[in-house]
Amino acid sequence: MNGALLEVRDLSVVFDGYRALAGVDLTVQPGELRFLIGPNGAGKTTLVDAITGLTRPAGGTVRFEGRDLAGRAEHEIVRLGVGRTFQTSVVFEGLTVVENLDLAASFRRPLWALVRRRRGVSDQVAGALEIIGLAELADRPAGVLSHGQRQWLEIGMLIVQAPRLLLLDEPVAGMSAAERERTGELLTRIAADHTVIVIEHDMEFLRRYASAVTVLHEGRVLVEGPVDQVRDDPRVQEVYLGRPREGAAGGATGGPVAAVTAAAAPPGGGGTE
Amino acid sequence: MTATTPQTPATPATAPRFAAPPPAPPWWARLGGPAAFTAVALLALVAAPLLLEPFRLNLLAKYLCYAIVGLGIGLAWGQGGMLVIGQGVFFGLGGYAMGMYLKLHEAGGDLPDFMVWSGVERLPALWAPFASPAFSLVFAVAGPMALAGLLGTLVFRRRVRGAYFAILTQALAAATVILLVGRQGLTGGTNGLTNFFELFGQDLAADGTQRGLYLVVAVVLGVLYLGARQLLRSRFGRLLIAVRDGEDRVRFLGYDPATVKTLTFAVSAGMAGLAGALFVPVVGIISPALLGVVPSLELVVAVAVGGRFSLAGAILGAVVMGQARTTFSEQFADGWLYLQGALFIVVMTLAPRGLAGLAGTAREMWSSRRARA
Amino acid sequence: MGAVINQLPIGLSIAAVLLLIALGLTFTFGQMGVINMAHGEFIMAGAYTAYLLQDWAGRQAVPVALPVAFVVAGLMGLVLERTLIRRFYGRPLDTLLLTWGVSLLLQQLARDLFGAPNVQVRAPEFLEGGLGVLPYNRLFIMALAAGGVLAIWIYLNRTAQGRRMQAVMQNRQLAAVMGIDTGRVDMRTFFIGSGLAGVAGVALTLVGPVGPALGTYYIVDAFLVVVAGGLGALRGAVAAALALGLLNSYAEFWTDASLAKVVVFAAVIAFLQVRPRGLFVLRSRALT
């Protein structure tokens, strides 16, 4: 376990007496693409918030490359190499696409060096523009982008920072089928040379792109393992349906988890949990 | 400064500065930047001293001092989203630094006149360093920057922001005034520091001296304007706008917004301090009434009238409001307060982007008409 | 030791006045994000109400004025909310400048109506004298504030209207979706909050003269109470008003009047290092 990139141990988060996380363990190895699923209120976003410093844990530890993340400010954690996106993308609408990327790429420069004006587009930013497919919109304000394009821009802003761990919070929520397709390709491409954790509600997306899955339920890890194994686990079916289904075995097309999607996961992303 | 400013009024969602939006702007807007600046600079540096009578030129110098404060407000508020309603404090620090130097120089080794009247017998230690003009000038800028740096660090690091921050700056202004008024022997109390006759061996009442002072103020303003504009076009400027529009998001890009905000706040405070130091020889007085909550807010509103998202708008607003106040209070003193109040309400309600915003809207309408034609 | 006790009623009555003023601000700020600088002029309006009622009610003007001032100031707030503030939702910082313009107008109006010099309101006979170090007029102000807090508490927790108000304060969108007419609730909030400022104005006539700038002396401190107390929290406002009122009067006593405000300011900044969002806050996960 010593080679683990991220080690979460017995993590708990309490909101005004409500235990949003109740002792979560999670280990992610370098190079992994891990999916994090669970019904609304399971604590997926809370877990990501606690890892990235947005929420203070009530107990437990988060170690990244052996370093304790507890008590560090968000920007310090980013500087250690942990990047994330949000459910509702928050690109800077007043800046152009290329400025958004450039700003993200410049985060390791000392502040005084930022007083110089940007000349041209760095290779890194140009590369990211290519990957996320927004090269033609480079000089348009980010405010004019569609929802899908904003998500890609946000992913691009992560890539240029070369983080060693990426946390993506529902990257395909609210996307059209075509956009989802492209995001999937983007994800495959990023996962080839990054360690990625993805929160996702969309089971179709999960089936196509996930290898390892962690299921959260009521602030705890319920099941963890390869996607097929998790899909057939009766406990997973139970939490998604509220009670075990009679004849729960998965003869149905796409498996029970897929069947369950419609009930548990509104494609709109359901907002908070 | 005219409406054809070098600066596109930058609301959170307007066009970027170095990438032209698809419909090409009219020639005068493209030419706008350097040409307009040169025109205004010529007007300010050559035409005004030649054409204006000394009294008017002196008033203009005063407005330009306010415009320097306004520039700082435009930077902190318009670009950085920090509503600073206590800039009078920094203006006052700079003003008092300069006033103390002038007073000591006037006294020529003795106690300044007001101290004698208040029964002070020995020069307070706080005053001693201000016998040096160099120290006084450096302090006029560095003092406000340090105070703003301290306040910004304490407040922004704890993520106190928005209305809270505005209220705190206001409370600082209120407390400062009470402190200055109460310490009669140290500060001259309500009267402040006045009766200055000489600056660096020049007679302050002479027209020549005042013309020189005017030129100094105008040049300082021009240089600061260009500097601020460069700052905004730099990555730091982009970062500042990003902090304004999404402070928490900026954190997840690995930047500490508190540092960005504190630095910007300090820069705007330094500008106010310098303005205060220039104001004192131009106007001949610095007193608590010039730096309390009311004058601080008046400057913010002047910036709003001119256009908070545009640096040139901020300058324009300070000059226009200064002139308006003079014109109207010369004619009907009481009416001015009604007019001022009503103007704020109208501007905030109907034209939140101010005069510069109106100019921008006119320009957009013009170019869209041309595009259709 | 004697000084500590002598200073107590002064501190407590400052706290009481601050509380009456800050209650209204807490709710309009907490619920609607409005920073109402004209709140100070509602205080002034309340004080002048008592002054005008002297012609008719003589020395009973103060007790008679209490309900009248509540309605007068409340209506002023209502009009302000309906005509102007309504257009400024989501722009809290702009409301500050807008309402400051209103505040200037109202001050000048008062100057034209009542003259620039201060006027006096004579206290009723039953408030003359006192219990030892505790003058009746200051006791009356404290009782008024306590009554105000109690009334607000009952309103918020025991009436349907008050619960709706709390719902809007905690989550405006959700409250609207649940069928609460948020516009109406905003109007009521503004009416009550401004009315309390009017009551505070009447109370102030008992301890000092009345002038067009009366409100400006209190508004900054009242805003500090809101900052230190936390948004929209009744207990926060009470605790912060008490703390700042007492600190103010003791700082004035131990240092001098000119330093007291600096001490209070420094104390608030120091306090924000520990509790940056005030004493009591509603947690939210929203990313701004």
Q: What tags apply to this protein structure?
A:
heterotrimer; A: 273 residues; alpha/beta; six-stranded mixed β-sheet; four-stranded antiparallel β-sheet; 22% strand; disordered C terminus; C: 288 residues; ABC transporter involved in vitamin B12 uptake, BtuC; two-stranded antiparallel ribbon; 11 helices; globular; ABC_UrtB_bac (chain C); transmembrane (chain C); transmembrane helix (chain C)
Q: Which helices and strands occur, and which strands form pairs?
A:
The complex is a heterotrimer of chains A (273), B (373) and C (288).
Chain A (H helix, E strand, L loop, with lengths): L5 E10 L2 E11 L4 E5 L6 H8 L7 E6 L2 E2 L5 H7 L1 E3 L12 H9 L17 H10 L14 H13 L5 E5 L7 H17 L1 E5 L3 H7 L2 E6 L2 E7 H5 L2 H8 L13 H10 L9
Parallel strand pairs in A: 3-8, 3-9, 6-7, 7-8
Antiparallel strand pairs in A: 1-2, 1-4, 4-5, 9-10
Helix pairs in contact in A: 3-4, 3-5, 4-5, 9-10
Chain B lengths: L26 H25 L2 H26 L7 H21 L5 H5 L15 H25 L5 H20 L1 H4 L5 E2 L3 E2 L2 E2 L3 H27 L1 H11 L1 H5 L5 H27 L1 E2 L6 H14 L4 H21 L1 H18 L3 H19 L1
Antiparallel strand pairs in B: 1-4, 2-3
Helix pairs in contact in B: 1-8, 2-8, 2-11, 2-12, 2-13, 3-5, 3-11, 5-11, 8-9, 8-11, 9-11, 12-13, 12-15, 13-14, 13-15
Chain C lengths: L1 H31 L6 H19 L3 H23 L8 H23 L15 E2 L2 E2 H23 L1 H11 L1 H6 L4 H23 L9 H16 L4 H21 L2 H18 L14
Helix pairs in contact in C: 1-5, 1-6, 1-8, 1-9, 1-10, 2-3, 2-4, 2-8, 2-9, 3-8, 5-6, 5-8, 6-8, 9-10, 10-11
Biggest interface, which chains?
A: B-C, 47 and 47 residues
Number of domain modules of chain C: 1
State the separation between the terminal residues of chain A, measured CA to CA: 31 Å
How much is the average pLDDT of chain A?
83
> How many distinct helices of chain A?
10
Structural class of chain C: mainly alpha
Percent of sequence in beta strands of chain A: 15-25%
Which CATH class of chain C? Answer: Mainly Alpha
Rg on CA atoms of chain C, Å: 19 Å
Please state roughly what percent of the residues of chain C sit in beta strands, choosing from under 5%, 5-15%, 15-25%, 25-35%, 35-45% or over 45%.
under 5%
Following the backbone from N to C, one meets helices and strands of chain C in this order, namely HHHHEEHHHHHHH
Low-confidence stretches of chain A: 244-273
Structural class of chain A comes to alpha/beta
Instruction: List the total number of helices of chain C.
Output: 11
| Low-confidence runs of chain C | 284-288
Helix content of chain C: over 70%
| Basic shape of chain C | globular
The major sheet of chain A is characterized as: 6 strands, mixed
Keywords (chain B): Cell membrane, Membrane, Transmembrane, Transmembrane helix
GO molecular function (chain B): branched-chain amino acid transmembrane transporter activity
InterPro entries (chain B): ABC_transp_permease, ABC_transptr_urea_perm_UrtC, LivM-like
Pfam families (chain B): BPD_transp_2
